[in-house]
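Saturday, quiet lab. Running sequence design on the structure tokens for the scaffold JK sent over.
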């Protein structure tokens, strides 16, 4: 039993089935979105953000989820340090990136409905925002690779050494610097999710309020 899955081994089969279903449905749905929005003649800011989100989600369904299924199926016993760190990089990059894109869509809809003549977010600015957020997400993912190591599993009685992908906080000789980096990465991820939830809820409440005011005025 590995350190990463010692309390979850019984849940692995159900998790793999669930991830497989999500991956299949996500691939189909995002492909439809990409085809429809890429053929639209109008290039609105909402189109740019939705296309970016669909592409990121497609990458997650094609690459990230299958890789997660593989890692879970082998219970994090990976002999490749590159694969171990690569998984953490894309996992900690594209999930927060998707959350930030959802927040951008909420901001875009707010300005389009509540301040239609302000032109705060243009198509050009939308593209620059997406690139900046992608860079920030990749930076976060790169830092997260420092929180994972390939460790020999000494609990197994095997003639050949077996290794597992393990978070640095679970090591016996974890340093203070490793813990600080780990909590910074975790805090950044949590902040991106909280930002996404709060921005979407607050902005759509403001949109709904604006629509009610206009409706009552008519």
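Result came back. Writing it out in full:
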């Amino acid at each position: 039993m590995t350190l990463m899955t010692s309390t979850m081994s019984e849940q692995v089969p159900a998790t793999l089935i669930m991830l497989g279903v999500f991956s299949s449905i996500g691939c189909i749905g995002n492909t439809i979105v990409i085809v429809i929005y890429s053929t639209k003649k109008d290039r609105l800011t909402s189109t740019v953000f939705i296309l970016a989100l669909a592409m990121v989600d497609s990458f997650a369904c094609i690459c990230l989820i299958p890789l997660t299924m593989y890692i879970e199926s082998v219970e994090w016993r990976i002999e490749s340090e590159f694969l171990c760190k690569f998984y953490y990089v894309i996992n900690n990059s594209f999930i927060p990136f998707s959350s930030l894109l959802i927040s951008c869509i909420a901001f875009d809809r707010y300005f389009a409905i509540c301040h239609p003549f302000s032109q705060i977010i243009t198509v050009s600015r939308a593209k620059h925002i997406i690139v900046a957020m992608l860079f920030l997400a990749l930076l976060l993912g790169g830092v997260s690779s420092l929180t994972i190591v390939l460790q020999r599993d000494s609990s197994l009685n095997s003639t050949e050494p077996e290794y597992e992908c393990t978070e640095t906080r679970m090591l016996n000789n974890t340093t203070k610097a490793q813990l600080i980096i780990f909590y910074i990465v975790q805090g950044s991820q949590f902040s991106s999710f909280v930002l996404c939830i709060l921005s979407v809820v607050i902005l759509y409440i403001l949109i709904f309020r604006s629509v009610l005011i206009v409706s009552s005025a008519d």
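Notes for JK: Confidence is low (pLDDT under 50) at residues 1-7. Residues 176-217 form the longest helix (42 residues). Ask whether to fix the surface positions before the next round.
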